[in-house]
Design a protein that fits this description.
mainly alpha; single chain; about 80 residues
């Protein structure tokens, strides 16, 4: 993900930083991020999730992916965190 956003994520980068507010991500990057996560983790985002600004921080990205993976293992769909 670092190569997409041209920023290094290390222990000094707060995981709850809003990537939009900090100028790290724009709407095009947001769509690319959704598509990357769908391919990488074999998950799907609904249109509502795509437009719901769910993935605005590293923390939210991790939580959303974990919830979708857990739902897939349980055999059902779930709403975002």
């Amino acid at each position: 993900m670092e190569e997409w956003f041209l920023i290094e994520y290390d222990e000094s980068f707060p995981e709850d930083t809003d990537l939009f507010r900090e100028g790290v991500m724009d709407s095009f990057g947001y769509v690319q991020l959704h598509r990357f996560l769908e391919r990488e983790f074999n998950i799907r985002f609904s249109p509502e999730e795509m437009t719901g600004n769910l993935l605005v921080s590293l923390t939210r990205i991790r939580e959303c992916v974990a919830q979708k993976l857990a739902a897939a293992r349980a055999g059902g769909a779930s709403s975002p965190p």
